[in-house]
Amino acid sequence: MKQWQGYFQLLWYQFTSGAVLRLNKHHANTLARLSSLRSLKDKENQGEVQHDTRIYVNQSTRKESENDRESDDVWGFKDTSYRANPDGTVEVTGSRYLLSGCTLPSLLPWASDVLGVEVPRQPMLQTLEISIPEPQHINGEFLDSLRQVVLLRDDQISSDAKIRRRHGHGHTQEEMYAIKYGSGLARVPDLVVYPETESQVIGIVEAARQKGVCLIPYGGGTNVSAALRCPSNQDGENRVIVSVDTRRMDKILWIDPVNRLAQIEAGAVGSNIMEALAERGFTMGHEPDSCEFSTLGGWIATNASGMKKNRYGNIEDVVLDMRVVMPTGGVMTKGSSSVHPRESTGSNPLLSTFGSEGSRTIILAPLIHQP
Predict the structure, then answer these.
(1) Average pLDDT for residues 123-139, to the nearest whole number?
(2) Binding-site residues for FAD
(3) SS3 assignment, position 8
(4) Which of the chain's ends, N or C, has fewer CB atoms near its CB within 10 Å?
């Protein structure tokens, strides 16, 4: 409080001494912050605010649109692709981008010139019908726990072959080639579950611990580190493998416009987060190339970087705290109801979550700073 008193004393001196008062950007921002805090203090005295500058949103960021379905076997949306025409032009299908519906007559000639080879007008390979591995292990007791203890509904548990395959690979060139032209994947998850609350994630982890089940957290499935590849029986993995898809946990829980903070569930997709924050006058500033599909939790698990990192920082600069479920089923977080300042008191175990590729925890709800 003393620093604010000193600041006002300086301003008062300039007023009373006849000095010309010039406010630079720093002064203006400081006064704006003080004005906001004073307004909140007045409301607190009137009983309108109780020591809290948060706006509790608790609203999903999900878009329910058939047009937003992801392609099954290539990067991108199902309605968008580059299509080579017999006359040598290239057409962008769909309608979501500025180039959608446009014809690109110079793309193939340019590629031929740069590569020094003649680019064929017809596909060199035909997509094959690659078989999808059957579930290699089934644990009935684990399934019973999911339904009777964790209380997952039928629509939160899937053994569909294509869904299991999609949860068994990322977007490396080797993986994408394998599912279209190669020998396929040796193994994919035996089951996919879709928790919707923190308590359900805790219940899934506890059931897996008791029944000896292997869990693989899943966000948008865009990683390029082969972290989603499942080890087969030949690799020595004889447990049931379950993919924990977090994308139904996609709410903005609260926004603090004064301290410029927000807590968002880990399954929220990047582009949806940006749109939801923009509606409230904020941004996150983290935009990796995969932001149309990747999730906030996935950004942390892969230690992601974005196109605007030089201005806003990487993901580790944006996230101040997070709630995670540990393999024991317990929840770990740095703070509770407030965000603690940086402390020189030893290591912060939550930092090991960055870049962990889902091997240590399941991320629930990160707390981010809004620039």
Answers:
(1) 86
(2) 289-295, 302-305, 357-363
(3) helix
(4) N
Specify the length of the chain in residues: 371
pLDDT digit string, tens, across residues 195-209: 999 999 999 999 999
Tell me the pLDDT tens digit for each residue of 25-64.
444 444 444 444 444 444 444 443 334 788 999 999 987 6
Q: How many domains does the chain have?
A: 3
Q: What's the pLDDT score for residue 125?
A: 74
Residue 177's alpha-carbon distances to 73, 80, 171, 173, 182, in angstroms, are 9, 19, 10, 6, 6
**295/363 same-domain check:** yes
Considering only CA atoms, which of 229, 218, 163, 211 is closest in space to residue 191? 163
Domain of residue 24 covers 2-51
DSSP string, 249-271: --EEEEEETTTTEEEE-TT-BHH
Amino acid at 222: T
What is the distance between the alpha carbons of residues 153 and 155, in angstroms, rounded to a whole number? 5
Residue 323's H or E segment, with its range, is strand 319-325
Task: Write out the binding residues.
Answer: 289-295, 302-305, 357-363
Q: Are 169 and 293 in a shared domain?
A: yes
* CA distance linking residue 137 with residue 159, whole number of Å: 12
Report the alpha-carbon distance of residue 300 to residue 315 in Å, rounded. Answer: 6
The DSSP call for residue 51 is S
DSSP 8-state assignment for residue 154 = G
Structure tokens at 164: 């299991």
* Through-space distance between the first and last CA atoms of the chain, rounded to whole angstroms: 24
How far apart CA 201 and CA 140 sit, in angstroms, is 19
